[in-house]
Amino acid sequence: MREWLIEPRDPLIARDGRPSENGRFSTLGFPFPSMLAGAVRTRMVAGRGTFDLAGTALDRLKEVAVQGPLLAELAADSDEVLAWFAPAPRDALFVRNTADRPVLRALHPRPLRRGEVDGLEERGLMPVSSETQPIPGKAPMGVPSFWRWEEFESWLLQSQDRDPVDLQGLGITPLPVERRVHLALQPGERVGIDGALFETAGLRFLQPGASPLAPRRFSLSVRVGASQVEERLLDLIEQVAPLGGERRLAHWTPSQHAWPALPKVICERISETRRARLILATPALFASGALPGWSNQAWPLGGDVTATVRAACVPRPEIVSGWDLAFDNGAGKKKGRPKPTRRLAPAGSVYFIELTGSKEDVARWCADTWLAPVSDFEQERRDGFGLAFLGTWEEAPHAS
Question: How confident is the model at residue 16, as a pLDDT?
């Protein structure tokens, strides 16, 4: 598979499923993998012309695997990737210390305390908590939504408290949302149409830089390979093409920079301890909601290793829907229908898992799982839901 960079030139509208009849086009804080998968497959067919696949060929097109997106920072004057960013891990708790400065508390699985009763034990799960007593109060301002790769890699190897913590050095805040008000005009005239006023909200893939005239550039990165559908070879080409709502333009270009590789020390540690901390790089779809269906069952990517979830840090679910453009409603009727809503485990969710298998099998499992999709369903894995990072973990000491 090959990495591609998709840099929105205009504010990107990653639609959130709400209807536009109210005159507002809202956006998500970051696009879902399905949005990128659909856009990539469309570009593979229509890159040099019109989209001309129909019938069973559309089903074959959906089998093309698209992985991503990851967030990358680009150089000011080229498409060189300066840095990779990962979604903030949910086992990192930000609080304030007694001097009102931000500190970071690492969350670890722990045994139940004496006299403590909850529903987790019945499902073979442990609670998670900080070894250091958290300080009550509001979370600090400016907590990063995306971590720099160097900081994130260090967290994968060993999650530990930081007091104090440099929030700006840790990562970046959410992508800024730019709102625009639009007015429809009478065809051929410079007169507005009564009542045709609407608002759009889009993501700006820019952050303040050292100078107002030199902002930091960011791009979406996806991984996709050439595919053949009905004896027709499909591949992406470098171009400026639409992406997202309102057909806003983006620059599609091949990348010479591979995604971050699995650190060797993390693979060795997991192989020795048979414990892995799985952190979602993209939202995942599981049959049981927050918990994966593969826990203590067959691994979705195959192999002889069995993974059992022992604890998890998962926030409230994200909801994804969409529109099925290929569905035929019958003769004389407009094609398409709404897709069912699905509940996703958000990016950054953390699963503390225990593995069974030989040291060699676990090492192969690590290599195969790193930045591979681990959702329960095959089509969602093809769409890039549930890409996984791997880290290490240790159980917190028992407290009576």
Answer: 77
Residue with tokens 């080409």: 237
Measure the CA–CA gap between 169 and 156, rounded to whole angstroms: 17
- Compute the radius of gyration of the chain from its Cα atoms: 23
Domain covering 264-391 assigned CATH 3.90.1170.20 in the classification: no
Quote the Cα angle for 329-333-339, to 5°: 40
Residue with tokens 């600090």: 140
Range with lowest mean pLDDT among 16-20, 76-80, 315-319: 16-20
C-alpha to C-alpha distance for 161 and 131, rounded to whole angstroms = 9
SS3 helix, strand, coil % of the chain, rounded to 5? 15, 35, 50
Parse the chain into domains and list their residue ranges. 264-391
Is residue 41 helix, strand or coil? helix
Residue % of the chain over a pLDDT of 70: 95
Angle (deg, nearest 10), helices 359-369 and 264-273: 140
What are the residue ranges of helices labelled H in the chain? 33-46, 56-61, 149-157, 167-170, 264-273, 359-369, 378-382
* Residue pLDDT, tens place only, 103-131: 899 999 988 777 666 667 767 888 898 87
* pLDDT of 22: 67
Q: Which of 221, 347, 377 is nearest to 278 (CA)?
A: 347
Alpha-carbon distance values, 112 to 89, 129, 180 (Å)? 23, 11, 52
